[in-house]
Amino acid sequence: MSSKPRKLDPRVIRTRQMLRNALIELIGEKGFSAITVQDITQRATLNRATFYLHYRDKEDLLAQSVEEILNELVTGMKECQLIDYDITDSDGNVVQPLPDLVYVFEHVAKHEKFYRVMLGKKGQQSFWFRLMDVFVNVLNSRLEQSMSHEIHPKVPKEILIHYAASAYLGVISWWLKHDMPYSPHYMATQLTRLRIQHLQIPPFELPPEPHDS
């Protein structure tokens, strides 16, 4: 018999959310290194005993919070990749955004405070690299799916993918910094246009590997 995954008690979910929210608020105010467990529990209006029922220390709280957010992001993007869609018309014009990009911006908007802090000046640099890895992996998968064996990028694939992933992060950071002036759908449409411009490219052989002179 297969066992279904146990559902968390809603009270546990609520407690963990309160602790995560407190942590993110405090990181935004004074940076992670200056925060104590006491600070977190006071902000969350919970006691220290409750904190230690769920987490070993503040590092564990941060690590689990990041893991939950990124797992949600990756799962949603993978589900979007299964959607059948046509994003361009017969002339090659973008008529709708890629579903996974719509999901990315909706996800970031849903967790706006988390991303605003973690990608901000007082956030954790390690989170930036983790998010970069998510985009690199998705773009790599996309590129392999969309290109036949006869088509090669004009630049090495690794450079192209990291260039695009960095652009995603930069655009998301800008969007948050300016209080999300455009809707997730609009932002996804603009990045879809950019992604097609950079990834849907004509046949061309890879350049030769550079040699030391």
From TrEMBL:
> Which InterPro entries does the record cross-reference, listed alphabetically?
Homeodomain-like_sf (IPR009057), HTH-type_Tx_Regulator (IPR050624), HTH_TetR (IPR001647), TetR_C_Firmicutes (IPR039532)
Key words of the record:
DNA-binding
**Alphabetical list of Gene3D superfamilies matching this protein:** Tetracycline Repressor, domain 2 (1.10.357.10)
- Reading the lineage from the top rank, the first entry is Bacteria
Q: Indicate the segments forming the HTH tetR-type domain, all copies.
A: 13-73
Tell me which Pfam families the record gives.
TetR_C_8, TetR_N
**DNA-binding region per UniProt:** 36-55
For this chain, one GO molecular function annotation is: DNA binding
Name of the protein this chain belongs to: TetR family transcriptional regulator
Provenance organism: Polycladomyces abyssicola
